[in-house]
Every structure is written in C-alpha cells, then in structure tokens.
TrEMBL record:
<feature type="domain" description="Anaphase-promoting complex subunit 4 C-terminal half WD40">
    <location>
        <begin position="136"/>
        <end position="234"/>
    </location>
</feature>
<keyword id="KW-0131">Cell cycle</keyword>
<dbReference type="InterPro" id="IPR024789">
    <property type="entry name" value="APC4"/>
</dbReference>
<keyword id="KW-0833">Ubl conjugation pathway</keyword>
<keyword id="KW-0498">Mitosis</keyword>
<dbReference type="GO" id="GO:0051301">
    <property type="term" value="P:cell division"/>
</dbReference>
<keyword id="KW-0132">Cell division</keyword>
<dbReference type="Pfam" id="PF23405">
    <property type="entry name" value="WD40_APC4_C-half"/>
</dbReference>
<dbReference type="GO" id="GO:0031145">
    <property type="term" value="P:anaphase-promoting complex-dependent catabolic process"/>
</dbReference>
<dbReference type="InterPro" id="IPR056358">
    <property type="entry name" value="APC4_C"/>
</dbReference>
<protein>
    <submittedName>
        <fullName>APC4 protein</fullName>
    </submittedName>
</protein>
<dbReference type="GO" id="GO:0070979">
    <property type="term" value="P:protein K11-linked ubiquitination"/>
</dbReference>
<dbReference type="GO" id="GO:0034399">
    <property type="term" value="C:nuclear periphery"/>
</dbReference>
<dbReference type="GO" id="GO:0005680">
    <property type="term" value="C:anaphase-promoting complex"/>
</dbReference>
Length: 234
C-alpha cells in the first residue's frame, strides 16, 4: 500500500468509527458506517449521505466544457444514487444499444448450405470433438470465403478446404476438398510408408494463393520432425 492509501484508510476510520455517546441508548452498533453501506444497497432510494463533489477535477472539467456538458456520449452521473442503481441504468442503456444491431444482423443471416461432415452414435454419452483448427480467410479479389479445418480420429493426415462464393446465389467448383499429406515427404518410394507419416498441427492462409501448414510425424518416437510447408492452392 502507498502512504496515500494508508492515510485514506486512517482518515476514514477517524471520521466514521468515532464513538457516538448520543447513540448509546439505542440498540445496535454505535458506529457510523452508513456512508459505505449506502452505496451497496440494492435500492432506488437516495443516498443518506451523498458524496461531496466540490473540488472534483472531473466535475469541474465538465462544468467548464461547453461541448462536453450536454454530450450524449457521457454516461450521466447520479450523485444521489447507489452503485446498484447506476449498474441497472447502465445495463439498460447497453441493452438498448445492442437490441437494434442484433435484430438487423439476425435478420440478415441465413443458412446458405448444409454439409454433413461426420456421424456419431446417438448412444454415446459425450460427443467427441472431431472438428478442429477452423481458420477463415476471405479472398477479396475473387470474392471467395475459405475455411481450413481438420477432422480428428481417422483423418489426422488430411486438411480440409471449404470454399464458398460471397454471393450465396453463386457456386464454386470443388466446394470442399481434402488434401492428404501422408508420406509425401519420403526420400524414396522404397521407404516404409508407415515410418514417415505426417499429420497437420496447424494451418493458415499465407495469402490468397498459398496455405501454410505445420506438420509433425505421426510415429510415436522421440525427436519427431516438424515441417513448415507452403502449399499453393492451385
């Protein structure tokens, strides 16, 4: 704590926890902590002891600013109200701000296409995560959206590329395809294919024409190779 913090706490204790002989005949505590508790009450009533804003630099700044004084961008200050009241006021304003965009965006979004990627047994207690690594890219030159993803389980060596035209009424050839890495990095066709099989760790678009992938050896052994490859979309 800084010395300023300690002084603040000491002043608070001195001001609010003095004995109050005039309250001795009443039941309950003899200390005045209402100035703290009043801010935390979930009530719309005015504060018992509103704060003294005289000399506050922010209020003085607003008062002397012609443009900011009535600005709708500044959240109004309620010096007579508790924090709960202010919180509810702010939540109401935020909800009102988000309501219209939510309606407009919601009405503009619709399903363009539905593809079945995999099926699972309905008897399973928990659905396994089979869809991994989705990365989106928008090619503004050709107006095409791309989605890169991998499917776990039996196709870890493949990366799937889904593409759709930004104009949903138009279609593109090979809307979805898969690239299998497998053992394409083998030094020789005679090399054991099982010993140098690769799976995809990560994949991002490098630019409109190129995909960057991080591959690893699938064989369980120390010193697995990691490969950074640049793949042309063509």
């Amino acid at each position: 704590m800084t010395q300023k913090d300690i002084t603040f706490v000491a002043d608070f204790l001195t001001e609010h926890f003095n004995e109050a002989p005039e309250l001795y005949n009443r039941k309950g505590k003899y200390f005045n902590v209402e100035r703290v508790g009043q801010y935390l009450k979930d009530e719309d009533d005015d504060l018992v002891s509103p704060p003294n804003t005289e000399g506050n630099q922010w209020f003085n700044f607003l008062k002397n600013s012609t443009h900011l004084k009535e600005s709708p961008l500044l959240f109004p200050y309620y010096p007579e109200k508790s924090l709960h009241f202010v919180k509810r006021q702010m939540e109401g304003v935020i909800d009102q701000c988000l309501q219209k965009p939510a309606e407009v965006i919601g009405k503009s979004v619709h399903q363009a296409v539905c593809m079945s990627l995999y099926k699972i047994s309905k008897s399973e207690d928990s659905t396994p995560q089979l869809f991994k690594l989705p990365f989106l890219w928008n090619d503004k030159t050709s107006n095409i959206h791309y989605v890169l993803f991998t499917m776990l389980e039996n196709s870890v060596s493949k990366i799937h590329i889904l593409r759709r035209h930004t104009d949903t009424s138009r279609s593109v050839s090979n809307g979805i395809l898969a690239v299998e890495f497998g053992n394409f990095l083998n030094n020789s066709i005679n090399e054991n294919s099982d010993s140098r099989c690769y799976s995809c760790l990560d994949a991002h678009f490098y630019d409109d024409e190129t995909v960057t992938v991080v591959l690893k050896e699938s064989v369980e052994q120390e010193g697995k190779e990691r490969v950074l490859a640049q793949l042309p979309l063509s």
